Structure formats: C-alpha cells, structure tokens
C-alpha cells in the first residue's frame, strides 16, 4: 500500500500556513536519501502568533468540562485508529522503521491518548481536615501554555504523550516536532483538529530548533517546557527555562544496562533483549545497550545473542520482510560508525555487524561488540543505534557499580529466576524504570522517565498528567 507524501505546513491558530520566513528545508527518505518534501521554517512572527493563539485559547479550553475534553480526545484516538495505515506509511517513509513497527508505535500512542482522556476526568484535589469553620482545599489547575519539543525516533508516539497529557489537563500548547519527520506528526495533529480541538489550543511550528526553543521558552505566556531528546540539548533547554523560572519535563537519553544473572533463562533473555535492541534500529532512549552477563552464562548468552543479531533482515521499512530499517538520518549513521570504529580500534571485537550496509540509504548492520574496554566512547556515550555491547561480570556488587557508573539513569533491566535477586537489583539500579525478565517498560498507564542526567518529570501514568498541572491551596474561613 502506498500513499502520497503531503506538503508539510505549520499549524497556527487553527490555520495551516507556510509561515512568514519564506525559507524551507528538505525532508529525506532515509532508505533512499531522496528528498521527499520541503518543510516551511517558522519565523519569529509565526512563533509569536502561535504563542498568542495558545494564550488566547487557554481560558476557553481550561474551562471546557473535563468530560467534553475527554470526548474530543477519545474521538482523536478513534480517528488515529482509522487512519493508521496511511500514518504508518508516512512514518516509515520519513523515519525508516518497518511499517509493522510504525503501526505498533501508533497503537501505543492511541492507548495513551485514550488513557489520558479518561484520566483527565480524575484530576482530583483533596480536602485537608482542619478546625471547625475552616476549609482547606488543594485543587489541581492546568499549568497554562506549554512549549513542547519532540524528536524524530517516534514521531507519532512521543507527540501523543505530550499532546494528550497537556490537553487532558486543560493546557494549550505550541509543539515543535522534529524537522526530519513532520508528516507523521502533522497527520496526528489533523486527528485532533478533526475531533474538535478548538483553534489555538494546539499549534505546531517547525524550523531552526535552537531559534524556536529560545523564542518559545522566553515568551512570558509559556508556563511549562517539555522536551524529549538528547542530554546536551535537554540541559541547554533546562537552563533557558531556569532563567525564566519555568518548570520542565525532561525525557532525555539513556545507556540502559541489562544484568543477565547466573540463574537467568539465557535463551529467553537473548530473544527478548535482541527483540527490543534492534527495534527502530536501536534509536530508542530505553534501548538495552550495555549487556552484563554473569561469567557462568556469558559464552552461551553471547553465542545466542550474536546469532540472533546476524539473522535480522535489514532493508527498506516498506518491504514486508524487513525487521530493521535504516538509521533515521545521516547524523546517526556517522555517529554510530564513529563509536563502533573507536571501540574496535581500542580492542573490541564485532561478533555481528560492525559496519554500514551498502552506500545508499543509512543502513547499518545489527552489531554485537565484545571485549570493549570500559573507556571506549561507546561504553560512555549513548549509542542510539543498532549496537549492543556484551561484557562479563563476576559478582553483584561489581556489576551494579558498572551499571550505575554512567551519568545516565533512564531504563535498566534484569534477567533472573530469583524474586529476591530481582528485588535487590531493581532497588539498587540507579534508573527511573526497571524491567525484570522483559523490556516492555514504556506502556500505557505507567510513568516513564529518568534520574540523573536522563532527566526529570514523568510521562504516562497519573504522574504524566499531573506534570501539566499546578496545585493551588485554598483555605477558606467560613463566615
Ligand atoms: P540532537 O540532540 O541535535 O537532537 C535531538 C532532538 O532535539 C531533535 O528532535 C532536534 O530537533 C531537537 N533539538 C536539537 N537542538 C534543539 C534546540 N536547541 N532546541 C529544541 N530542540 C532541539 O541530536 P540528533 O542527532 O537529532 O539526535 C541524536 C541524539 O538525540 C541521540 O544520541 C539521542 O541521545 C538523542 N535522542 C533522544 C531521544 C529520546 O527519545 N530520548 C529521541 C531522539 C534523539
């Protein structure tokens, strides 16, 4: 099935527009490197318009009854489900992942919209007991206008998280999705428009990310900044927000450790880890990257995992036989290649992959590295690509020290048959999310987010919506 690639636009105050700058930038198909579209770049006047529209729309949207907001979000979710074939095709065209995986991302996004829609009806406050004649109440109010920044690796799923939570909480927003993958996010936005989100409530701008974030974060009407992306950019945006005393939700990079204990079901561990590792060509913040196998199971685990990696069919995302597509852009290809080359130059060995595939399209082979020294760049910088590094360990204290050594703290995983050991390791891993015997940890209804340099705040679950609210305390002395 094939669709036309649309002409991406900005969406400001209820209107599609080519913006005021007159500048456009190309969008590429990562499987062929062909230019498939041109994207308008927002100028300062467009950004001001978007912020003012969101600000004007705020009083109406925050006072819309929660049930009505819920109905609109549920309708958007239903429309997204109806349009999944076309939107999945768009994601694959501009981002590269196999169509089946694009669909999974969209289905997860639908679940999140539906969950947030309903949870918006349950933003309860509380009454604090006090002396007679005094009422003490805490109510949750929408924080206000949100500036949201979403990356290219999941161009429907990540915007779903931000849009659904903000709208369910009664906020309005200006969203800057990734310039590399505009059509998927715009198709998502169209579902909210068609579902009845009023003009100004949801605005979308693209352009120069640094100029846009600086402009939006400084705007006095913006009251919250939410960003998903790399640690350096997250730190930069957090600094801009701190200057204006604005809160932030930062969902940043990770370098997830996996501890495969001596009592693990090695075959299951290898299958599940490989299944997650190479999905989206490893371009996921929760991707398992540092695999620590106990000395007694190391050889078996390495053999099974490398064999699985070597069997993965790599190709264009549109082909039904493809299990892993290209990397999403030329920057990732160069970065992954540099990290692998550095590891090999320092003595690491590639048991699978280790190089680019072909010379057209950003294809990189599923790669398994062993004997990598601890000071290699790839053991310290987020790989964000289809590379797993396997190392052996001897005891729990040592593996925990290695797992916790990095400034990242997003996801961590443990494979063991012992509940006591699982409990102990889950408690000791310095990360926001731990998966025991599986890796499906960013799903509907549960909070997801990091500690340390992987960020703060949570997306999903009750915490996700609460992040878009502020509490107000009202104490009322009855006359
Ligand atoms: P990058 O850090 O330049 O960009 C990451 C994202 O941030 C992109 O969507 C980009 O448009 C946006 N961005 C960049 N500078 C910005 C700014 N000043 N203001 C607002 N937004 C800005 O790197 P990249 O090459 O696009 O991606 C590679 C790195 O990004 C990876 O190594 C990974 O660490 C990180 N990343 C993380 C996630 C995640 O889900 N946490 C997603 C995508 C990328």
From TrEMBL:
Please state what the protein is called: NAD-dependent succinate-semialdehyde dehydrogenase
Q: What is its EC number?
A: 1.2.1.-
Q: Which domain of life is it from?
A: Bacteria
Xref: PANTHER family? SUCCINATE-SEMIALDEHYDE DEHYDROGENASE, MITOCHONDRIAL
Query: Which GO molecular function entries does the Swiss-Prot or TrEMBL record give?
Result: oxidoreductase activity
Q: Which family does it belong to?
A: Belongs to the aldehyde dehydrogenase family.
* Keyword list, A-Z: Oxidoreductase
Species of origin: Xanthobacter aminoxidans
Q: What is the lineage of its organism?
A: Bacteria, Pseudomonadati, Pseudomonadota, Alphaproteobacteria, Hyphomicrobiales
Where would I find the Aldehyde dehydrogenase domain in this sequence? 16-474
The EC category is oxidoreductase
Question: Which InterPro entries does the UniProt record give?
Answer: Ald_DH/histidinol_DH, Ald_DH_C, Ald_DH_N, Aldehyde_DH_dom, Aldehyde_DH_Superfamily
Q: Does the keyword Iron-sulfur apply?
A: no
